[in-house]
Amino acid sequence: MTEFERNCYGMSTEDIKDQFFNSITFELSGPTMVVAGLMSDAQEVMAMGDVESARKFLNIAKFILFETTEKAEV
Asked: Residue 63: which of 18, 29, 3 has the closest Cα?
């Protein structure tokens, strides 16, 4: 994991792909539901005062959004 990945996501981009792109939610409902779930997680941790984790959840959601959008545009 690079320093950028650690600071931005808290995990590597390969781990994001393994964890989220291979999830049952992604397979059954697609990336929109995965992104919505991550945004809900961000809201929950923000409500508990954990802004840093919320920021990372949102960055992971953006990564998934950009990865799936770019693939759809090709």
From this structure: 18
23 in Cβ contact with 36 (< 8 Å):
no
pTM: 0.90
- Give 23's Cβ-side CA count (13 Å radius): 18
- 64 and 33 Cβ atoms separated by less than 8 Å: no
Torsion of CA 50, 53, 55, 56, to 10 degrees: 180
pLDDT of 12-37, one tens digit each? 999 999 999 999 999 999 999 999 99
Q: Which residues contact 57 (CB under 8 A, 6 or more apart)?
A: 38, 39, 41, 42, 45
Taking Cα atoms as reference points, which of 50, 65, 71, 64 lies closest to residue 16?
64
Q: How far, in Å, CA of 69 to CA of 72, rounded? A: 5
